[in-house]
Amino acid sequence: EVQLVESGGGLVQPGGSLRLSCAASGFTFTTYEMNWVRQAPGKGLEWVSYISSSGSTIYYADSVKGRFTISRDNAKNSLYLQMNSLRVEDTAVYFCARHYSSSSGVVWDYWGQGTLVTVSS
Amino acid sequence: EIVLTQSPDFQSVTPKEKVTITCRASQSIGSSLHWYQQKPDQSPKLLIKYASQSFSGVPSRFSGSGSGTDFTLTINSLEAEDAATYYCLQSSSLPHLWTFGQGTKVEIK
């Protein structure tokens, strides 16, 4: 069974930092690309960042570029999101999502349960 | 950026009724359109991938159709457990260009 479990969320002051983790199990983590997606309270879904299976290719949303860093440790089956210079508008539930590629195309097929990040003074 | 516009934004439906949600793309995306269900305080769950392919374990009352710019999610014979917000997602290009629709909330009368 595919499982993605996020952790590391919490309350942080504006300008502060947090590191989110996503522990993967039930599949061969090293062969899958991964993403972070967030959802502000009562709002829709917003893609945050992507990382290839090897970690060699990375993309960020403009809203977090230069402040957030995505990484992975394939030996530990884990995905990370280092968030610096946090802003009030970064308040959201952060989900990790598995990136599945096939002959039909690509899709995010499994998501974790999410971890809440609250940026407030 | 490809913009996805869902309609309606909200729908109140009685059990066993048929529900139709549409997602229109601002440019052609082939079949690179997926549907997710999100219940309160839960993560999104994949229902339909590549416009019309059912994801593993999804009840048969959920179906998808369309290609190009116009797509439809249909829920036949709505059940109480289907109360949720439904999102479409397009994956026609590189991941940093993927976009979601704004969501359609389905409420049970």
In short, what is this structure?
The complex is a heterodimer of chains A (121) and B (109). By secondary structure, chain A is mainly β.
Identify the notable features of this structure and list them briefly.
heterodimer; A: 121 residues; mainly beta; 7-stranded mixed sheet; 4-stranded antiparallel sheet; 11 strands; 0% helix; B: 109 residues; globular
User: What oligomeric state do these chains adopt?
Assistant: heterodimer
Shape of chain B: globular
Question: What is the percent of helical residues of chain B?
Answer: under 10%
Shape of chain A: globular
Given the helix and strand composition of chain A, which structural class is it? mainly beta
Could you describe the 3D structure shown?
The complex is a heterodimer of chains A (121) and B (109). Helices cover 0% and strands 56% of the residues of chain A. Chain A contains no helices and 11 strands. In chain A, strands 2, 4, 5, 6, 9, 10 and 11 form a 7-stranded mixed beta sheet that branches. In chain A, strands 1-3-8-7 form a 4-stranded antiparallel beta sheet, with no helix packed on it. Chain A is globular, with a radius of gyration of 14 Å. The termini of chain A are far apart. Chain B is built from no helices and 11 strands. Chain B has strands at 4-7, 10-13, 19-25, 33-38, 45-49, 53-54, 62-67, 70-75, 84-90, 99-100, 104-108. The N and C termini of chain B lie far apart (36 Å). The mean pLDDT of chain B is 96. The chains are: A mainly beta (121), B mainly beta (109). At the A-B interface, strand 5 and strand 10 of A face strand 5 and strand 10 of B.
